[in-house]
């Protein structure tokens, strides 16, 4: 637990539950309707201190579990009685978190499991979550109340046998759960009870996830219009459904539901994937290269010694991997960012500069225009023997780096020491389903952040399908993609991964607007391929 989070936890008295000596606690936690971003701060805090998490593995997004420690034990709730599993583990002194979809008090088995824990003498607490009853309509752009409609009635239709006469009040908004397989019966029951066939009705499936789908209809047409929609689904009946056209915000995001291939490691892709999610996309991170230490460490050992003894005037970082390699070498020697005192530091671009700042080093020089070796050379000062006591520059780089930067700096009078800080090798092929999706058009877009990602992705997984939108970070990467027979659809205005994601979002927004203007169904690129399943 980080110091900041630990301090917050210590200030929260609710985090401490009085338990008998040697007995842990059980916390019953609601995850919300599906979006990991709706997890409450309270829920995240108890997950951080959990020794064991009990949850349906097939129902939990990995991001929920990212709040846990690396050594947490994940137990599938289908492997036995969850209450018995929790009680048994708690009696060994472990802290247990039992996760439920939605809110703990609605549609969950909290009553029975809590009672079983009480009977077993195990202390527990309940952490509510965002309920699907309010969360899903909010993501569908449907307020349950407005100035004219103040009454909301919630119906659980999962077991059937609902007396629809009780819900015939014309001005009441109905929220109906568990009716995915009985939409026709629900509509007929409400009409028979007195609700007009023209009553607005909507159904949202997989609410608050990037696979969400909302169909707006009437009681008369709801069953045929929602045929084939996936569970879980929520039905809303009432005049408030009309707000959907004005308030829909989630499903109208520029890349909503797009499956985007990001050929980078999880560490490299973290900020890029988060940006893509903000546009509604579903990023899939597939590393195309593997970063490994140099075959012989002597060069880096001498370079670090030279940094400490004042051998260099400048140190140039051309990638985040170079920053990571130097940090790791510093750690081996018990050094930190203070070793850069008195040195001038340059970064080839925004991402590399950010990695240095995270390390505690503020770059003295970055390109003002093109973020590349050429851009760095353009702003690099020439060597001046009166102003510069040392003319030596250290370049810790990859084993396959080009000589553009060295040639440029040498031409400005500097002496360069090119040191292999790490090696890049082609990554292992991704799993078969990923390879099939790449070649078969299962991805809506792929982001290429360098020429090597183009070559390596095609080498380990095959050529992307022609319906897949190809987005490239710059002209050189686009040229490489075209040489491999790919059609480049998007290119960033400046060579940064953030600008690349933004350019793809703009492309998606224009594409969506064109489909709406033409009166065409809204279809993702992957739905354009032959044989793709699509709904009207």
Describe this structure in words.
The protein has 536 residues and is an alpha/beta fold. It has 4 domains: 23-130, 3-Layer(aba) Sandwich (Cobalt-precorrin-4 Transmethylase, domain 1), CATH 3.40.1010; 133-247, Tetrapyrrole methylase, C-terminal domain (Methyltransferase, Cobalt-precorrin-4 Transmethylase, Domain 2, 2-Layer Sandwich), CATH 3.30.950; 259-288 and 428-528, 3-Layer(aba) Sandwich (Rossmann fold), CATH 3.40.50.10090; 292-426, Rossmann fold (3-Layer(aba) Sandwich). Helix content is 34%, strand content 19%. The strands form 4 sheets. A 5-stranded parallel sheet has the order 3-2-4-1-5, with helices on both faces. The protein has a 5-stranded mixed sheet with strand order 6-7-10-8-9, with helices on one face. Strand 11, helix 10 and strand 12 (282-285) form a beta-alpha-beta unit. Helix 17 (451-461) packs parallel to helix 18. The longest helix has 22 residues, at 497-518. The radius of gyration is 28 Å and the shape is globular. Residues 1-16 have low confidence and may be disordered.
Helix-strand makeup class: alpha/beta
Please name the CATH architecture of the largest domain.
Answer: 3-Layer(aba) Sandwich
Continuous helix count = 19
The tally of domains stands at 4
Distance between the termini: 48 Å
**Spatial strand order of the main sheet:** 3-2-4-1-5
Radius of gyration: 28 Å
User: Percentage of helical residues?
Assistant: 25-40%
Indicate the low-confidence ranges by residue numbers: 1-16
Shape: globular
């Amino acid at each position: 637990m980080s110091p900041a989070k630990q301090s917050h936890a210590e200030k929260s008295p609710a985090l401490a539950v009085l338990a008998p000596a040697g007995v842990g606690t059980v916390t019953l936690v609601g995850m919300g309707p599906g979006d990991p971003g709706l997890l409450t701060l309270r829920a995240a805090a108890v997950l951080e201190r959990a020794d064991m998490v009990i949850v349906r593995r097939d129902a939990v997004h990995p991001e929920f579990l990212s709040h846990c420690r690396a050594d947490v034990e994940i137990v599938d709730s289908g492997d036995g009685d969850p209450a018995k599993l929790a009680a048994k583990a708690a009696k060994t002194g472990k802290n247990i978190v039992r996760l439920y979809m939605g809110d703990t008090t609605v549609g969950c088995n909290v009553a029975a499991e809590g009672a079983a824990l009480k009977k077993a003498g195990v202390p527990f607490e309940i952490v509510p979550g965002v309920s699907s009853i309010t969360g899903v309509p909010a993501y569908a752009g449907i307020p349950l109340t407005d100035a004219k409609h103040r009454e909301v009635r919630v119906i659980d239709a999962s077991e059937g046998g609902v007396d629809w006469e009780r819900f015939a009040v014309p001005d009441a908004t109905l929220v109906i759960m568990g009716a995915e397989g009985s939409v026709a019966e629900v509509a007929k029951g409400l009409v028979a009870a007195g609700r007009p066939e023209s009553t607005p009705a909507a159904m949202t499936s997989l609410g608050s996830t990037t696979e969400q789908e909302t169909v707006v209809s009437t009681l008369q047409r709801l069953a045929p219009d929602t045929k084939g929609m996936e569970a879980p689904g929520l039905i809303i009946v009432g005049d408030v459904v009309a707000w959907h056209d004005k308030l829909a915000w989630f499903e109208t995001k520029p890349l909503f539901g797009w499956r985007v291939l990001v050929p980078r490691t999880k560490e490299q892709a973290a900020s890029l994937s988060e940006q893509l999610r903000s546009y509604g996309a579903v990023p899939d991170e597939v590393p195309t290269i593997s970063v490994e230490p140099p075959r012989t460490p002597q060069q880096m050992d001498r370079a670090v010694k030279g940094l400490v003894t004042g051998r260099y005037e400048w140190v140039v970082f051309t990638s985040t991997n170079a920053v990571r390699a130097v940090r790791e070498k510093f750690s081996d020697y018990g050094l930190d960012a203070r070793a850069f005192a008195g040195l001038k530091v340059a970064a080839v671009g925004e991402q590399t500069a950010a990695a240095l700042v995270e390390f505690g080093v503020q770059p003295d020089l970055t390109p003002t225009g093109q973020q590349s070796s050429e851009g760095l050379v353009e702003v690099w000062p020439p060597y001046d023997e009166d102003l510069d006591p040392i003319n030596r520059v250290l370049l810790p780089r990859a084993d396959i780096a080009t000589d553009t930067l060295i040639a440029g700096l040498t031409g400005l009078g500097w002496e360069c020491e090119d040191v292999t800080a790490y090696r890049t090798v082609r990554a292992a092929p991704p799993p078969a389903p990923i390879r099939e999706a790449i070649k078969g058009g299962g991805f809506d877009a792929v982001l290429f952040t360098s020429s090597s990602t183009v070559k390596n992705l095609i080498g380990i997984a095959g050529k992307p399908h022609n319906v897949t939108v190809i987005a490239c970070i710059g002209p050189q990467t686009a040229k490489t993609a075209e040489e491999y027979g790919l059609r480049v659809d998007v290119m960033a205005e400046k060579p940064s991964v953030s600008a690349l994601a933004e350019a793809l979002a703009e492309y998606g927004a224009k594409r969506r607007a064109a489909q709406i203007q033409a009166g065409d169904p809204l279809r993702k690129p992957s739905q354009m391929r032959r044989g793709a399943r699509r709904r009207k």
